[in-house]
Amino acid sequence: MSDHPLPAHGLYLIDASIYLFRAWFSYPPEMTNGEGRPVNAVYGYANFLCQLLERARPEHLAAAFDLSLTTSFRNDIYPPYKGNRELPPPELEWQMTIARDLTEAMGVAVHASEVYEADDLIGTLATSMRKEGFPAVIVSADKDLAQLLDDGDVLWDFARDRREDGAAVAERMGIRPRQVADFLALTGDKVDNIPGVPGIGPKTAAALLSHFDSLDGLFDRLDEIAARPIRGAKGIGAKLRDHEGQIRLARRLTGIHTAAPVHAAPQDLRWKRPNSDGLNEIFDQLGFGRGLRERCLQLA
Length: 300
What we know:
- By secondary structure, the protein is an alpha/beta fold.
- Helix content is about 45%, strand content about 10%.
- The protein folds into two domains: about 10-175 and about 255-295, Rossmann fold; about 175-255, DNA polymerase, domain 1 (Orthogonal Bundle), CATH 1.10.150.
- The protein is built from 13 helices and six strands.
- It has a six-stranded mixed β-sheet with strand order 3-2-1-4-5-6, with helices on both faces.
- α4 packs antiparallel against α12 and α7 packs across α8.
- The longest helix has 17 residues, at about 40-55.
- The model has no long low-confidence stretch (mean pLDDT about 95).
């Protein structure tokens, strides 16, 4: 497990929906407010956010939310994209809305889009703010986001407290961060319902990218694969040639968009600290007790 230090003046980018879904499945659905509505997911998320702010005390941060599983631009490219996932039930959708309000009341900038996924919003903010001198601290357990890591950046799986820079990702996955999207285009991604090439698993994909560097380099030199010390090498070139259209399509899905219409300057991403009145109003609506409420309010 890597324990890479966090940069002193990083921009913390929270993949918020992951922590909402984690809480939805981790906390009992019997947790309800005075109206009988489930509040388990937003309670777990609020606890996570409070812990993160207590621990990191970031100067600049933002939270990115996914608004839909069916309206991403990737669904236009490939309609079955994420088609294996169940849509959030109404009880969770309501909590997702409240979680965005709670995040803003905690003084954290919120970004969400029905066209661009949270990954794309994080990628765009990381790329644009890097030019302003801010290394990114991406708070997520999503392996796809490793492709965004540049010098000085850290991917922080908060629940496991695993912090990795690009070198640690390369050691763990056998590929460099910038190769992650190509890697997933070859192996597929069951989580997002993206098919892979039959017979091309993680070890084979990593070995191919290690030698040929990228998908373009691979397809430019397919005839060289047979001589590589890879299991089944003689048949890999034909497989890739037969599936090139699928692989090229998958690559359009696995690559994180870094030019989404997200406009934010450093001052827009500065942590403003909790709004006590707004936070108390939300906590009253949710029926949360003193413990979590006081922890969050003491950050003001």
